[in-house]
């Protein structure tokens, strides 16, 4: 079994079956084959609940090499493009690998490029932790140099400063009806990607800002929280004919 979480009073501990966990609540001998929902106790008699890792848990617990795309943005990408089992996906700008892991857990066959070799190695370890190392291949390299010869994909996802350059060349690397999705933290990159997609003759070109706000409920009434606006970035989508 891959890594699991031991949960106690809102605290989460990432562990592997069979290992020993040392906490301020005592030492836990993690079972070799734990079941989700099972309770295990430390040597001090403190109880922990076993939980399997899901997508949001990966966001919280994978080793980070930068700011990963957050689940709300990943959800928009999956919902907009219809990413699904058996899709062939090209991803660039692996970083921590959260997006690649989500797509791999959907059953897609993912090839992801990370320009920094040391970050690529961390991403490989993260894919093993997410239990998708059989469906996600992490390569160290520059996608602008590696693109030719890769064939066509159902979905191309980009989280790189050079995304507009890749989008300009992407038409021959998308199957009919395939999508390209670009995540841009800055609007300048989003606009350049949008214009590159339009100039390349792709269809349904659209750029959206993804904003999410929590709701506050108290005795005075209900309203969106005043703590920030929930902006994380821009998503540009386009489709092959």
From TrEMBL:
Q: Which domain of life is it from?
A: Archaea
Q: What GO molecular function annotations does the UniProt record carry, in alphabetical order?
A: tRNA (adenine(58)-N1)-methyltransferase activity
PANTHER family listed in its UniProt record:
TRNA (ADENINE(58)-N(1))-METHYLTRANSFERASE, TRNA (ADENINE(58)-N(1))-METHYLTRANSFERASE, MITOCHONDRIAL
- InterPro entries xref list: SAM-dependent_MTases_sf, TRM61_C, tRNA_MeTrfase_Gcd14
- Name of protein: SAM-dependent methyltransferase
UniProt keyword terms in alphabetical order = Methyltransferase, S-adenosyl-L-methionine, Transferase, tRNA processing
**Which Gene3D superfamilies did the record assign?**
Vaccinia Virus protein VP39 (3.40.50.150)
Q: Which residues form a coiled coil?
A: none
Please provide, in alphabetical order, the Gene Ontology terms of the cellular component aspect for this entry: tRNA (m1A) methyltransferase complex
Limits of the tRNA (adenine(58)-N(1))-methyltransferase catalytic subunit TRM61 C-terminal domain:
72-216
Q: Which GO terms describe its biological process?
A: tRNA methylation
